[in-house]
Amino acid sequence: MSLPLKLNLIFLPSQAYLKFEIVAKKSATTPDKAPKETPLMKQYNEIKNKYPDACLLFRVGDFYETFGEDAVRAAGILGITLTKRGAGSDSETALAGFPHHSINTYLPKLVKAGLRVAICDQLEDPKMTKTIVKRGVTELVTPGVSMNDEVLQSKSNNFLASVHFGKKAVGVSFLDVSTGEFLVSQGNEEYIDKLLQNFRPSEILIPKQFKNQFNSVFGDDFHTFFLEDWIYKEDYALESLTKHFQTNSLKGFGVEELTEGLIASGAILYYLSETQHNKIQHITNIQRIAEDAYVWMDKFTIRNLELYHSYNPNAVTLLDVIDKTLSPMGARLLKRWLALPLKDIAKIRSRHEVISYLKTNPEVLQKIQYQIKQISDLERLISKVATGKISPREVNFLKDSLDAIIPIKNLALESSNEALRVIGDSLHACELLREKIKTTIQEDAPVSVNKGNAIAVGVHPELDELRAISSTGKGYLEALEQRESAASGIPSLKVSFNNVFGYYIEVRNTHKDKVPAEWIRKQTLVNAERYITEELKEYESKILGAEEKIHQLETQLFEQLVNWIATYIKHVQLNANLIAQLDCLTSFTQLAIDNKYVCPDLDESFDLEIKEGRHPVIEKQLPVGVPYISNDVYLDRETQQIIMITGPNMSGKSAILRQTALIVLMAQMGSFVPAESVRMGIVDKIFTRVGASDNISMGESTFMVEMNETASILNNISERSLVLLDEIGRGTSTYDGISIAWAISEYLHEHPNQPKTLFATHYHELNEMEVTFERIQNFNVSVKELKDTVLFIRKLVKGGSAHSFGIHVAKMAGMPQIVIQKAQKLLKQLEKRHSSEELSGIKSASDELQLSFFNLDDPLLEDIKEEIMNIDINTLTPVEALMKLNEIKRMLIKK
């Protein structure tokens, strides 16, 4: 009986494909019949149910297969063919796969696409079982947990982060499982946001109950994974951490009071166990990110200065310019130094002194650089030792790298610089480790122990004997064939092999009468007879077992060596860290030599004095032969706290602001700086409001973003802050903008902390502030007016600018001539009208003030009354109260 059919059209957005489904309308008498499940698919479904949110790579013979939705996603990402299993049957399902030996090609693509990938391998030899092969997940690879070289970037850390929302603070932890670096901190949401921006983790773990809160505070720009809430408990975290580090407490790490951060750290260890990463003895330490040890830069400043990331794909970042490191460890550490500039003068000076020594001793510099080039990624190599994923060839890389450290150690010990001598003394020679590897592993070791010939000759007598049997086997059989042929007089005699009889001697029928009596006949063919001898059977047993035994012995010996190397994990990690530091310092030295950077003079003052400063990025982008126009900047807290910079677009105002911030930042990283000279007191916070950027996805306009960033600055300034503001207020109407810019400038001037400030603006009206506020000074980026155009001199000079030259800039941009002419005509009309209205207003105001002086109905008193009545005493801070009082006082002085 035919059933009525219904055609359903289903669109699955996450899978990006259309599926036509024919559904039979069941009658009351039609029984529900479940599709038949094969043993293989039953096994697959059981394993998939344990990892529902991961793409399961299911090993079937020589292929890794994916099924259903996983197959659709994998085919789209990998560009492989999507087929069907059981086509036309009730159990039909999508299927896509690739050869198992191509795992290192395809796995990175899946992980980089943000997928969690569960690798399900065959846990037994298919030949050894008559039922379905036993299978299980041997590794769960996620964006934040990977040891695969194709997934990792050599110059960047691959951090897994965990965030815990506590009652008093937000805890955060970062782990790079490929290097063993484990970091922890806690603070307010703004501080955690800054750390997330700095470390850019590949994956973040979050408690399920805080999913919405995380997205609202930190955005949805990260790969996130949500864990059960019970994992984020203090007792569980402390137990996990102390058990891992085999300690009774965490006091020895100096992190015991970071409760919220430690809870986040415990969740990371839980996640590692859940993803089958149980060999983690290379995680030997957990370090605190000490907030008070580093210069504070909020996420806006990090973005605005384009330190190591830019939203413009063609932009050159500061890191691109200053990174002259020669090792992966150095490149990763340099990013950390850039994200976390120092505040400790002694530590900064120590770095400067090393650079000065290397700069004046070029031979030492060149020798150290040469040796660093010979060093592989020690951090990741020793991590592979801990996880058992290192190859024989990589073990040799480890040995060669440790060999290359010895000349560096000697050069450092012989230097006259104290910091270098400390590094030299701390570097571990690892003599026994280097010797052990040298005598155990072949020089030309393979990429895998399975390929054989990994263990050196002389390490194991039985292995050497088996190799001799294996290598001489062919020659022995050839000699036996020739000997038996000569003895029997059978010229066409052949020694051959098959899986049924093993080795045998084949004789054609024409010569079978010459066969010796001691030969044993095993098989009769149409044209020949096959025989065996006692000698041949004895040798067969030796040669057939040799290859298998060789593999077993080599694997066993290599595993023993790797386990022994693991006892040196801490020594190698220490060496890796010291070489990374030295690499960064030689990078700074080379940078200073190549670009004529100078050593900044740091002191305890609050001053900032830059002579002939240059922008480190812009000067490298200029055409050959075009010099960068350098500029002086001086700021202090007594005479020149705020510099008001006016000048037209394209004149270089923003460049001066940015270069000031970058020079300060580079100085406190420990680098030399692009200037003729720099004298500065330590800066503890750098704030920038430079450049416009809409946040449309969050429903925020340019002006709203500008105000958010400026509010963050005003609420966090300190006496050692450096504040850089560019075109504040331009996102709204002119008079609103001028009012806001004026009020912000006045707030900064009157604030007790008196932060050093550069304020670039189009609003020439702000030049009047110099008259009223003693620590505000006017400067302008000079231009030269020619007949039909302007020439940008790009030099910062004393005094305010009276023109914007916006129309000239429009002309330079190629605006149609008719538009330029109309704009010039309108500008003259507006300037004339504004000037007459201003004069009339001034005269009127002057007359009114003269008539009402000392009058109780004086408008000034009304203004003061209005100011006082509008104060909300309940929310007014002490600083704001003093500033308001000072403002009223100034109004009376004017009177």
From TrEMBL:
<dbReference type="Pfam" id="PF05188">
    <property type="entry name" value="MutS_II"/>
</dbReference>
<dbReference type="GO" id="GO:0140664">
    <property type="term" value="F:ATP-dependent DNA damage sensor activity"/>
</dbReference>
<feature type="binding site">
    <location>
        <begin position="647"/>
        <end position="654"/>
    </location>
    <ligand>
        <name>ATP</name>
    </ligand>
</feature>
<dbReference type="InterPro" id="IPR007695">
    <property type="entry name" value="DNA_mismatch_repair_MutS-lik_N"/>
</dbReference>
<dbReference type="InterPro" id="IPR045076">
    <property type="entry name" value="MutS"/>
</dbReference>
<dbReference type="InterPro" id="IPR007696">
    <property type="entry name" value="DNA_mismatch_repair_MutS_core"/>
</dbReference>
<dbReference type="GO" id="GO:0005524">
    <property type="term" value="F:ATP binding"/>
</dbReference>
<dbReference type="Pfam" id="PF05190">
    <property type="entry name" value="MutS_IV"/>
</dbReference>
<dbReference type="GO" id="GO:0006298">
    <property type="term" value="P:mismatch repair"/>
</dbReference>
<dbReference type="InterPro" id="IPR036678">
    <property type="entry name" value="MutS_con_dom_sf"/>
</dbReference>
<dbReference type="InterPro" id="IPR036187">
    <property type="entry name" value="DNA_mismatch_repair_MutS_sf"/>
</dbReference>
<dbReference type="InterPro" id="IPR007861">
    <property type="entry name" value="DNA_mismatch_repair_MutS_clamp"/>
</dbReference>
<dbReference type="InterPro" id="IPR016151">
    <property type="entry name" value="DNA_mismatch_repair_MutS_N"/>
</dbReference>
<keyword id="KW-0067">ATP-binding</keyword>
<dbReference type="InterPro" id="IPR000432">
    <property type="entry name" value="DNA_mismatch_repair_MutS_C"/>
</dbReference>
<dbReference type="GO" id="GO:0003684">
    <property type="term" value="F:damaged DNA binding"/>
</dbReference>
<dbReference type="InterPro" id="IPR005748">
    <property type="entry name" value="DNA_mismatch_repair_MutS"/>
</dbReference>
<keyword id="KW-0238">DNA-binding</keyword>
<dbReference type="InterPro" id="IPR017261">
    <property type="entry name" value="DNA_mismatch_repair_MutS/MSH"/>
</dbReference>
<comment type="function">
    <text>This protein is involved in the repair of mismatches in DNA. It is possible that it carries out the mismatch recognition step. This protein has a weak ATPase activity.</text>
</comment>
<dbReference type="Pfam" id="PF00488">
    <property type="entry name" value="MutS_V"/>
</dbReference>
<dbReference type="Pfam" id="PF01624">
    <property type="entry name" value="MutS_I"/>
</dbReference>
<dbReference type="InterPro" id="IPR027417">
    <property type="entry name" value="P-loop_NTPase"/>
</dbReference>
<dbReference type="GO" id="GO:0005829">
    <property type="term" value="C:cytosol"/>
</dbReference>
<keyword id="KW-0234">DNA repair</keyword>
<dbReference type="Pfam" id="PF05192">
    <property type="entry name" value="MutS_III"/>
</dbReference>
<dbReference type="GO" id="GO:0030983">
    <property type="term" value="F:mismatched DNA binding"/>
</dbReference>
<keyword id="KW-0227">DNA damage</keyword>
<protein>
    <recommendedName>
        <fullName>DNA mismatch repair protein MutS</fullName>
    </recommendedName>
</protein>
<dbReference type="InterPro" id="IPR007860">
    <property type="entry name" value="DNA_mmatch_repair_MutS_con_dom"/>
</dbReference>
<comment type="similarity">
    <text>Belongs to the DNA mismatch repair MutS family.</text>
</comment>
<feature type="domain" description="DNA mismatch repair proteins mutS family">
    <location>
        <begin position="721"/>
        <end position="737"/>
    </location>
</feature>
<keyword id="KW-0547">Nucleotide-binding</keyword>
